[in-house]
Specification:
heterodimer; A: 88 residues; alpha+beta; Folate-binding fold; four-stranded antiparallel sheet; two-stranded antiparallel ribbon; 6 strands; globular; B: Ubiquitin-like (UB roll); Gyrase A, domain 2; seven-stranded mixed sheet; 24 helices; 29% strand
Chain lengths: 88, 962
C-alpha cells in the first residue's frame, strides 16, 4: 500500500501508523460533557464498513503529520490523503 | 543405455559444450543449455522420482514450472536445496543432485511396498487410522504423535540440510509504469508497445530463454523484439525471474535466480535477488499450461504431456521415447505428433476420445503417421519401471461407456493432452475471480480493470495454427478400474476424490484439505482442474458452480534467503545512552530495556547480580549513588498555549506551575485507564520539558501529536522529541546535596535555592547543566541534565566530586529495588489495565477541569471496590519471590483462584527481606493478610507472603523532602 503524503510524496505503508476512524475522531464529545452514552460511543463504537472508510494515519516515519486517508477496506485502494490539523 | 538425443535441432543447447553432472553420485553428461530433465531424458533415464505416499516410480511429465514428479535435491558445498524441479535445473559442469523419497535407490525403492497397501492409504488415511481412543494413554492425537516419526520417514519429499547457507542474497525495490509478467510473444509485444509509448517497463520471464511456448519458427521475431527492448534505457528485462506474488497497491514480488545455473558465480554476485516491484499497471502474459487426462496407470514413467514432448525435441533435441503414442481430447496434440514425426520419431498411434476431428487435425494426423483411433481411450498401462504397453478400448465420451475388447499397443512414451488452462494464478491472488469458459473447458481471468490487463494464451487466446480448434472435448477422466492419479505429487487418485465426496465433503475447499489435492509443492498446477471436474461429476453439478479455490502466493516456491536478503542476524535496534562506554568500562552488565541498553548492575569480580544490586541500593540509602536516566522520554513543549495543553492531557493541573518548578503528572487514555506518568518541568512561561517513562516515550509523543493535530488544532503548541538531545543522571542519597554543592557553580543548591521539585541552572566542570530536585528512589535526589555530547564529561565530574562521599554508580536493578520499597509505579503497573485509583494515584485527578480520560474514568466498572489494586508484599519465609507469580489464598494443595499477581520483586536491604509489588483484588482491605505467591510452572514455588502497604519505606517521604 502506498499513501501519497501531501508533504513527503507517495510513501510506503511501513512509514505510516494507523490512528483510527477519522469520522469517529472528529466526533469527540465536548470534554466537559459527561454524557456517558456519547463518550461510550466515541471510545468503543466503530462502524466496520466494507468499502470506503475515512481514517487517520500518522506519517510516523516521515513528517509525523496526521493525514485523513480515504481507503477502500475491500480493495485497499486509497482515494485521497489530506492533511489534518492547523492549516496555517 | 540408448541416447535419445537427435543428431540435429535443439534451440537451447550448445552441441560443442559437453558438461558432466552427477545424480546420487553417478556421473552423467549433458549439453550446455540442457535442463536436468532434458539431460536425463537424453541419457535414457525414465524414473526421476518416487511418489509421496506409495513410492511409485515416476518420470518427468512436463517441461517447466508445472512439473509434479521430477524433483531433486541440489547439493552445493554441503548446502541442500530440496524439491527443485528437474525441468528448472540448468545443468553445468560439476552440478550434483540427489534423488528423493527413495531407499536405498531411485531404481530399487523398498518403500514401494506401500503400494500393496493400496486402499488402506486412501484419502483421510491419517485421520482415520491415527485418531486414538477417547481415554487412556494413547487418547486423542498421542497415538498419531507416536507413529508420526515413522510415517514421516516413509512418506515425503526432499530433506533439507542443516549446513549454513553462505550464499549472499539481495533485495531490491523497483518502480515502473508497466510490469509484464511472462516473456513469451504476447508479453514481449506488449512490452515493446509500451516502451515505444515512453513508459518505464519491466519484463519478467521465469525461464532462461525468451519466447515462452512460442513455436520454434518464431525465433527470429523474438530475437528482434528482445534486441529492440534491450536497447531502450527505460526497459528492464529479467529472465530466470519468477513473479510469484501480487499484493495490494500493485506491489508484486519476484525472485531472480542469478547464479544457480553457473559453475562459478562472478565475485560478489548474489545467488537470488528478491524484487519488490511497484507498478502502475500489470500486463499478465503468463501463458497456459497443458493438462493431463486422468486414466488408470497414468503415472507410469513415459506418460508425458504432449506439448512437453514436443518441446523437449524442439528445445533440447531430445526425443521423449522411440515409439510414441498420443492420447488427446483436443487438436493441439496433433501438432506435437506431427512435429515429433518431423524430427524422426515413430508415432505408433493417436488415440482421440472424440469420435471425429476437423480437417486441420486430420491433415496433421496424416503427417504424423501411425494408427488414428478416434472414439477410443487409454484404459491401462503396463511396464515395471517405465511404460511398455498401453491398453486401448473403444470409448464414447458422452455416455462414458466402453465397448469391445481392449487392444495392446507397444509404446515407450504416451503423450497426453487434456486441453489447456490459462495461468490465472496471479490475477486470482489479486482478488479476481476466474470465470469458467465452456468452449475452452477452462477458467479464464475476468475482465481486467485499470490496474491490469491480460494478453495471449493467459487470456484464453489459444492459437494452435489455422484450422485447428482450441476447444477440447469435456473429458478430464477416463474412468476404468485401476489407480488413476489426479495429483501426482501428493498421490491423490480419482477414487480418493470420490471417496471424499462419499464421506460428505461437498465444498471444494474441504475436498482440497481432506485429500490434500493441490497442496503439494506444485500447488496442483497439473491437477486442480481435473480434481474439480471429478468432484463436480460426483456432485452432479456443473464445474463453475463447484468453484475454484483462490490462489495464494507464492506461485512457485520462493527462497527465504532472498526474502530475508541482508536483513538477518541481529537487526534489533540498540539505543545507547551518551554514557554507554563509561558503563561498560566500569563493569556494568548491560540489559536490553526496549530498544535501550541500560546498566543492570555494576558487578565486582565474583559478585552475583543480586549481591551487586543490594549493595548499590544500600549505598543510595546510606550515602550517595549515581544512575543514568538518559533513556527517559523527553519532549519539548513550547508555545503560548503550552500550559493549557498540559492541563488537557494531564489529570492534574499545570497552568499554575511556576517557572523553574517541576510537577509529577499522570496521563490517562480516552477510555479512562492510566497511560503514563512522569515529571514536567516549566522552563519558561511558554516552554516545558516533559519526561515520560522509557517504555512509553514513543506512545506519549504520538498521543500528544494526535491531540494537537486532530483534536485541538486551535492550540498554539509545538511538541518536539528531545530524548536524544539531553543526557541525564540522577544523583540520589542523603549525601547527594553535598556532592552537588562541591561541583556545581553558578547556582546554590541548598534547600532554599533548590527546594523539592525546584529547578536551577548552573555549570559542572564548565558544562551548562539543568538540575531538578526530584526523587524516584525516595531519597534526597536530583536529576542533572546536560547536552548529550557532554554526558560522559558531566557524569565523570559527578563521580569525581562524589569520591570523598564514596559515591557509586547504580543500575536498573538497584533503581527497581529503591522504587519498589517506595511503591512508585512503572510500566509494570501502568500496564493498560489499571486506573489511577488502582495505583493510589487518585489524588492526582483534578476535579476542576476536564482532561483526556476524565469523562470515562468514573464508569461503574472502573470504580468497583473489588478491582485489583496496588499493594506491597513481603516474603515471610525468606524465599525469593518471582515477578508474575499469582497471589492465592490457599496452600500448595488447595491454592484457590488467583487474586492477582506480582508485578515486581527485589531483595530489600532496608527491610532485610524479599519484597514485591502486586496488583490484587480488593487490595486495600487485604493489608495485613497472610497469603501465598504461587509460581507453579516456572520456579514451582509457593511462598507465604504478607500483604502490606505499597509504601514500604519512608511512607511519609521525609527523606526526599529533607
Amino acid at each position: 500500500m502506498i499513501i501519497a503524503c501531501p508533504f513527503c510524496g507517495p510513501r510506503d505503508l511501513s512509514e505510516f501508523t494507523y490512528c483510527g476512524d477519522a469520522d469517529n475522531l472528529a466526533a469527540r464529545p465536548d470534554p466537559a460533557a459527561t454524557d456517558q452514552a456519547a463518550w461510550n460511543a466515541y471510545v468503543y463504537d466503530r462502524t466496520n464498513p466494507a468499502g470506503e472508510h475515512a481514517e487517520i494515519w500518522q506519517h510516523s516515519g516521515g513528517c509525523r503529520k496526521f493525514l485523513r486517508v480515504v481507503r477502500s477496506t475491500v480493495t485497499h485502494e486509497i482515494e485521497s490523503a489530506e492533511m489534518v490539523g492547523p492549516k496555517a | 543405455m540408448t541416447s535419445h538425443r537427435r543428431p540435429e535441432g535443439g534451440s537451447a543447447i550448445d552441441r560443442d559444450d559437453t558438461v558432466g553432472f552427477t545424480v546420487d553420485g553417478r556421473q552423467y553428461f549433458g549439453l550446455a543449455g540442457d535442463t536436468l530433465a532434458a539431460a536425463l531424458l537424453a541419457n535414457g533415464v525414465r524414473v526421476m522420482g518416487r511418489s509421496f505416499k506409495y513410492h511409485r516410480p515416476r518420470g518427468v511429465v512436463a517441461i517447466g514450472v508445472d512439473e509434479p514428479n521430477a524433483l531433486f535435491t541440489v547439493t552445493t558445498d554441503g548446502v541442500r536445496e530440496p524439491n527443485v524441479r528437474a525441468t528448472e535445473i540448468e545443468v553445468f559442469d560439476g552440478l550434483a543432485v540427489e534423488s528423493q523419497n527413495r531407499w536405498p535407490s531411485l531404481d530399487n525403492d523398498l518403500m514401494a511396498v506401500n503400494q500393496l497397501g493400496g486402499k488402506a492409504l486412501a484419502a483421510g488415511f491419517y485421520y482415520k487410522t491415527f485418531m486414538g481412543p477417547v481415554i487412556g494413554p494413547l487418547k486423542g492425537t498421542r497415538f498419531w504423535m507416536m507413529c508420526e516419526h515413522v510415517i514421516r520417514r516413509a512418506a515425503g519429499l526432499g530433506r533439507p540440510g542443516t549446513a549454513r547457507d553462505e550464499s549472499r542474497y539481495e533485495r531490491i525495490n523497483a518502480f515502473c509504469d508497466l510490469l509484464v509478467v511472462g516473456g513469451g510473444l504476447a508479453g514481449l509485444h506488449t512490452a515493446l508497445e509500451a516502451s515505444e509509448a515512453g513508459k518505464r517497463v519491466i519484463v519478467c520471464e521465469l525461464e532462461p530463454r525468451w519466447g515462452g511456448g512460442a513455436d520454434g519458427k518464431k525465433e527470429s521475431e523474438i530475437r528482434q523484439i528482445v534486441d529492440s527492448l534491450e536497447s531502450k534505457p527505460d526497459v528492464t528485462l529479467l529472465n530466470r525471474t519468477t513473479v510469484w506474488g501480487w499484493y495490494d497497491g500493485n506491489t508484486l514480488a519476484a525472485t531472480e535466480r542469478i547464479t544457480d545455473h553457473l559453475r562459478t558465480a562472478p565475485e560478489g554476485a548474489p545467488r537470488h535477488r528478491h524484487w519488490v516491484i511497484r507498478t502502475g499497471h500489470v500486463a499478465l502474459a503468463t501463458g497456459a499450461l497443458e493438462r493431463p487426462i486422468v486414466f488408470p496407470g497414468n503415472d507410469r514413467p513415459g506418460v508425458m504431456l504432449a506439448d512437453a514432448g514436443h518441446r523437449y525435441a524442439e528445445t533440447f533435441g531430445v526425443l521423449p521415447g522411440q515409439h510414441l503414442t498420443v492420447l488427446t481430447n483436443n487438436d493441439s496434440a496433433y501438432q506435437a505428433a506431427a512435429a515429433l514425426r518431423h524430427v524422426g520419431a515413430n508415432i505408433r498411434a493417436i488415440i482421440d476420445v472424440r469420435p471425429e476431428i476437423g480437417a486441420g487435425a486430420q491433415r496433421l494426423a496424416d503427417r504424423a503417421g501411425g494408427a488414428l483411433k478416434l472414439g477410443h481411450a487409454v484404459v491401462g498401462t503396463s511396464g515395471a519401471k517405465g511404460l511398455k504397453t498401453i491398453s486401448v478400448a473403444r470409448y464414447n465420451h458422452q455416455t462414458k461407456s466402453f465397448s469391445g475388447g481392449s487392444e495392446q499397443i507397444e509404446t515407450d512414451c504416451l503423450l497426453v493432452s487434456g486441453g489447456w488452462s490459462p495461468v490465472v494464478h496471479l490475477a486470482s491472488q489479486a482478488g479476481a475471480q476466474p470465470i469458467w469458459d465452456e468452449a475452452l473447458q477452462a477458467f479464464l481471468p475476468p475482465d481486467p480493470d485499470k490496474h491490469w490487463s491480460v494478453h495471449g494464451a493467459a487470456a484464453g487466446d489459444l492459437d494452435f495454427g489455422h484450422d485447428l480448434s482450441p476447444a477440447p472435448a469435456p473429458v478430464f477422466e477416463i474412468r476404468h478400474p485401476g489407480k488413476a492419479f489426479v495429483d501426482f505429487q501428493h498421490d491423490v487418485t480419482a477414487d480418493d476424490v470420490r471417496l471424499a465426496h462419499q464421506e460428505g465433503f461437498r465444498s471444494v475447499e474441504h475436498l482440497k484439505r481432506y485429500t490434500t489435492l493441490g497442496m503439494a509443492t506444485d500447488q496442483g498446477k497439473t491437477s486442480n482442474i481435473a480434481g474439480l471436474a471429478i468432484m463436480a461429476d460426483a456432485l452432479k453439478m456443473p464445474i463453475p458452480e463447484v468453484g475454484t479455490t483462490r490462489f495464494r502466493p507464492p506461485y512457485t516456491a520462493a527462497s527465504l534467503g532472498a526474502i530475508a536478503a541482508e536483513r538477518y542476524g541481529d537487526l534489533f535496534p540498540h539505543r545507547l545512552t551518551p554514557m554507554h562506554d563509561w558503563h561498560t568500562d566500569h563493569g556494568a552488565r548491560m540489559y536490553a530495556a526496549g530498544h535501550w541498553e541500560r546498566p543492570e548492575s555494576y558487578n565486582r569480580t565474583g559478585e552475583t547480580v543480586e549481591q551487586a544490586y543490594v549493595c548499590e541500593a544500600k549505598i543510595v540509602r546510606q550515602g550517595v549513588g549515581l544512575v543514568d536516566v538518559s533513556t527517559l522520554g523527553k519532549i519539548d513543549i513550547a508555545g503560548p498555549d503550552a500550559a493549557e495543553f498540559l492541563n488537557r492531557v494531564y489529570t492534574n493541573g499545570f497552568a499554575k506551575l511556576p517557572v523553574n518548578k517541576a510537577r509529577y503528572g499522570l496521563m490517562l487514555r480516552e477510555d479512562g485507564f492510566a497511560m503514563d506518568d512522569g515529571t514536567t518541568w516549566r522552563l519558561a512561561k511558554n516552554r516545558f520539558l516533559m519526561t515520560t517513562t522509557t517504555a512509553n516515550a514513543g506512545k506519549v509523543m504520538s498521543h500528544l501529536e494526535l491531540c494537537l493535530d486532530v483534536h485541538w488544532p486551535d492550540l498554539r503548541v509545538h511538541v518536539t522529541s528531545v530524548t536524544d538531545q539531553w543526557a541525564g543522571a540522577a544523583i540520589a542519597g542523603p549525601k547527594s546535596r553535598e556532592v552537588l554543592a562541591s561541583c556545581v557553580t553558578g547556582t546554590a543548591v541548598d534547600n532554599d535555592a533548590l527546594p523539592f521539585m525546584g529547578i536551577v541552572h548552573g555549570t559542572i566542570s564548565g558544562v551548562p547543566v539543568m538540575i531538578c530536585r526530584l526523587s524516584f528512589s525516595g531519597e534526597l535526589a536530583y536529576e542533572v541534565y546536560c547536552g548529550a555530547h557532554h554526558g560522559t564529561h558531566v557524569w565523570e565530574a559527578l563521580m569525581t566530586a562524589g569520591k570523598p562521599f564514596a559515591i557509586a554508580p547504580y543500575g536498573l536493578e538497584a533503581l527497581g529495588t529503591l522504587r519498589i520499597e517506595k511503591g512508585h509505579v512503572t510500566a509494570a503497573e501502568i500496564d493498560g489495565r489499571t486506573t489511577a485509583r488502582d495505583l493510589h494515584l487518585d489524588w492526582m485527578l483534578s476535579s476542576k477541569k476536564p482532561f483526556v480520560g476524565s469523562a470515562m474514568m468514573d464508569r461503574e466498572g472502573l470504580t468497583d471496590k473489588s478491582r485489583w489494586t496496588l499493594v506491597g508484599v513481603v516474603s515471610r519465609s525468606g524465599e525469593k519471590l518471582h515477578g508474575g507469580a499469582h497471589v492465592v489464598a490457599g496452600d500448595r494443595d488447595e491454592p484457590g483462584a488467583s487474586l492477582g499477581h506480582l508485578t515486581a520483586m527485589a531483595f530489600s536491604p532496608e527491610m532485610n527481606a524479599y519484597v514485591g509489588l502486586a496488583l490484587i483484588e480488593d487490595g486495600e482491605s487485604r493489608i495485613g493478610q497472610h497469603l501465598y505467591a504461587a509460581d507453579p510452572v516456572r520456579s514451582q514455588t509457593h511462598i507465604p507472603i504478607e500483604i502490606v502497604s505499597h509504601h514500604m519505606v519512608d511512607p511519609k517521604g521525609e527523606r526526599m523532602h529533607g
